[in-house]
Design a protein that fits this description.
The complex is a heterodimer of chains A (280) and B (408).
Chain A lengths: L8 H11 L4 E7 L5 H14 L3 E5 L10 H12 L4 H12 L7 E5 L1 H7 L1 H11 L3 E4 L11 H7 L2 E2 L2 E2 L8 H5 L6 E4 L12 H14 L4 E4 L5 H10 L2 E4 L1 H9 L11 H18 L3
Parallel strand pairs in A: 1-2, 1-9, 2-3, 3-4, 4-5, 6-7, 7-8, 8-9
Helix pairs in contact in A: 2-4, 2-12, 4-6, 9-10, 10-12, 11-12
Chain B lengths: L18 E2 L2 E5 L5 H14 L3 H15 L5 E3 L1 H7 L3 E5 L10 H14 L4 E6 L3 H13 L2 E7 H6 L1 H9 L3 E5 L6 H14 L4 E3 L10 H9 L1 H14 L5 E6 L3 H7 L9 E9 L10 H4 L1 E5 L1 E6 L24 H9 L3 E6 H15 L5 H13 L8 E5 L8 H10 L4
Parallel strand pairs in B: 4-14, 5-6, 5-8, 6-7, 9-10, 9-14, 10-13
Antiparallel strand pairs in B: 1-2, 2-12, 3-4, 11-12
Helix pairs in contact in B: 2-4, 4-5, 4-9, 5-7, 9-11, 10-11, 14-15
The chains are: A alpha/beta (280), B alpha/beta (408).
Chain lengths: 280, 408
């Protein structure tokens, strides 16, 4: 692992969860889905509902690693006017209500490249971001964003996948910071149920290569699955099932309703209860 | 196949990481990286294997029908009244376009790798048809991702693919065109990583695809060189080809890049005009960005969101372009211009009437641009245009528009 001047929030949160004898719950939402005001209310409500960490999606027109649920969430946000600067505005507003919950921006490289890498990193750090997951930047392209990000003190969190073999794993882990995100399936987000027994073995394999926490995502849909995954790893990340809850609360025109925030936060609470019930 | 690089050659790229200057690269999700590396290793080995070269040559000669003729378009030359116009007749290939050159190479590579399941994306359907054809020939399964809008406007090609045994997946995400088909093909590939080979149809995508597809298409330019020497005893003055992703153009251009006296022109789809937002001219109307595994010029908004391309030609309707073209554009070695839907339609009719060749809408763009300058060039100059596809597939979309314009 590369040493870097971390914001400290990610490490503190994993330590706190470990002290409680449980894994963390990471929750993904697309910034500004279904609209800016509702999205902000959702984000601000996540810690109270039991989310330990927020994976904050930066909407992109062409999310090539995402399944239909997350694609649709990003398009709803874009249609409602979401932009990269507004993503950071939302983080800034969230930080006025919560100083401790780690925020991991998740998305694709082009909107960051378009914004300007150095300027984006400065603005993201100032807004209160802790790390980034940028799906289309493998270790082969570390000079683009990963290394500049570490230099600025933002964790660059890498995805490890079932296709990442032992030979490749060291290069994937080399500049990873914060935690390692294990993609539990060979597929796009939200399409297949998480295979818990495979995740167990994969987590053990990763742990042999890294001292960082290992979180698991892609395919966790229920509190039971979140509990099972959190038991065998350092954290479960749920995305598609959360944005599906948002989608189901919308009216016929795709607009937020009075149910959107409470329904979504209630679902997140059920996930959090699952994870908290799965103490090891 | 690619020729050994000489120092300071414009033909030496890409570097080991797949970069042409700042363009190209491998911007894909980790799930795909091991596959991309596997394809690269297999291709690196295959391209120096005489047996692989021999296989490709066999199918070029006996199946595709290569070499395609280099044809002196005498009536059009007379019509324009300037330099001599030659067509490189890649529309005469089996399946009716240049796409089969690349597909045959990649299908043979997949076969060497022991892959029996093929995925492809397609816009106009020409790449999909070529892929379905090779899969039928080699006994492989074939799944083609095609934008739902393109499925509508290119129905004859959809039927061809089905007849050849391929399964066509209409893609409804986004605008339902080539960009979205490529997203969906990549997503599907991620889920079938162990068993499937993805045959990308143009000189784009993550390394090694841009270089590999270029190598397989370079037969177009190599033949042109030999045929032109035989016909005229010298190289042409100007090369012209249309550009969507840019594979037919790169195939013609690449063998000539170091021949500095040869002027090279790529013609992008100008749609309703570059001054509107309804075009597909990535170089003339876009800026560098990252999409579909490579850095290249893209149509995008101020926030880095990809915008929809527009062209009357489904094959050019793509918001990006191969990374090597972006590099050649910035170097200034190739001049990139644009031509509108209307100009392409007029050239479509003109070529049919004057030469008895119904061109695809894609090369009709190239011909429309040829018409803007060739009349002013001296009669002893020579222009070669890549007539990269035939127009049968376009009749459904084109005829009503030609009727409306009074062109038939």
């Amino acid at each position: 692992m590369t040493t870097f001047d971390s914001t400290g929030r990610i490490e503190a949160r994993f330590a706190a969860c470990a002290a409680e004898g449980r894994g963390a719950l990471g929750v993904y939402i697309s910034a500004g889905d279904p609209d800016l005001a509702t999205g902000q209310a959702l984000m601000n409500g996540l810690p109270g509902a039991g989310a330990d960490m927020i994976e904050f999606g930066m909407p992109f027109t062409d999310p090539m690693a995402d399944g239909p649920s997350v694609q649709a969430a990003g398009l709803r946000a874009l249609a409602a006017g979401m932009t990269q600067p507004k993503v950071l505005d939302m983080v800034r507003a969230f930080r006025e209500t919560d100083a401790d919950t780690p925020i991991i921006l998740m998305g694709y490289y082009n909107p960051i490249y378009s914004y300007g890498v150095e300027r984006f990193l400065d603005d993201a750090k100032a807004a209160g971001v802790d790390g980034m997951i940028v799906v289309d930047l493998p270790p082969e392209e570390d000079d683009e964003l990963c290394l500049p990000s570490l230099r600025k003190g933002l964790a660059f969190i890498r995805l490890a996948t079932p296709t990442t073999d032992d030979k490749r794993l060291p290069s994937v882990l080399r500049h990873t910071a914060g935690f390692v995100y294990y993609v539990s399936i060979t597929g796009v987000t939200g399409t297949v149920d998480v295979p818990v027994e495979i995740v167990t073995r994969a987590t053990e394999r990763l742990k042999r290569h890294t001292a960082l926490p290992v979180c698991v995502g892609f395919g966790i849909k229920t509190p039971e699955q979140a509990a099972a995954v959190a038991k065998v790893s350092d954290g479960a990340i749920v995305g598609s099932a959360v944005v599906d809850t948002i989608r189901m609360s919308l009216d016929a025109d795709g607009k937020a309703t009075a149910r959107t925030v409470p329904d979504t936060l209630a679902f997140v609470k059920s996930l959090a209860d699952g994870v908290r019930g799965a103490r090891v | 196949m690619s020729v050994a690089a000489v120092p300071n050659s414009l033909r030496a790229g890409p570097d080991a990481e797949g970069h042409f200057g700042i363009f190209g690269g491998r911007y894909v999700a980790e799930t795909l990286m091991p596959l991309i590396l596997e394809v690269e290793a297999a291709y690196t080995h295959a391209k120096t294997d005489p047996a692989f070269k021999k296989d490709i040559e066999y199918f070029h000669t006996h199946y595709i029908g290569r070499p395609s003729p280099l044809y002196f378009a005498e009536r059009l030359t007379e019509h324009f009244g300037g330099a001599k116009l030659y067509f490189k007749r890649d529309e005469l290939n089996h399946t009716g376009a240049h796409k089969i050159n690349n597909v045959m190479g990649q299908a043979l590579l997949a076969k060497r790798m022991g892959k029996k399941h093929i995925i492809a994306e397609t816009g106009a359907g020409q790449h999909g048809v070529a892929t379905a054809t090779a899969c039928a020939l080699f006994g492989m399964t074939c799944e083609v991702f095609m934008g739902a809008e393109d499925v509508e406007r290119q129905k004859p090609n959809v039927d061809r693919m089905r007849l050849l045994g391929a399964e066509v997946h209409p893609v409804t995400s986004g605008a339902g065109t080539l960009k979205d088909a490529m997203n969906e093909a990549l997503r599907y590939w991620v889920s079938k990583a162990e068993t499937h080979f993805y045959i990308i149809g143009t000189v784009a995508g993550p390394h090694p695809y841009p270089a590999m597809v270029r190598d397989f298409q370079s037969i177009i330019g190599e033949e042109t060189k030999t045929q032109m020497m035989a016909a005229e005893g010298r190289l042409p003055d100007t090369l012209v080809a249309c550009i969507g992703g840019g594979s037919n153009a790169m195939g013609l251009f690449h063998p000539f890049l170091d021949d500095v006296d040869v002027e090279i022109i790529g013609v992008e789809a100008g749609g309703l005009g570059l001054e509107t937002d309804k075009h597909a001219a990535s170089l003339n109307g876009g800026r560098p960005g990252v999409l579909h595994g490579n850095r290249t010029y893209l149509l995008q908004d101020d926030d880095g969101q990809i915008t929809e391309a527009h062209s009357i030609s489904a094959g050019l309707d793509y918001p990006g372009i191969g990374p090597e073209h972006s590099w050649l554009h910035e170097l200034g070695r190739v001049k990139y211009v644009a031509c509108t839907d209307d100009a392409a339609l007029e050239a479509f009719a003109l070529c049919s009437r004057k030469e008895g060749i119904i061109p695809a809408l894609e090369p009709a763009h190239a011909l429309a641009h040829v018409g803007t300058f060739i009349g002013d060039r001296p009669k002893d100059q020579i222009v070669v245009m890549n007539l990269c596809g035939r127009g049968d597939k376009d009749l459904g979309a084109v005829i009503p528009q030609l009727e409306a314009k009074g062109l038939i």
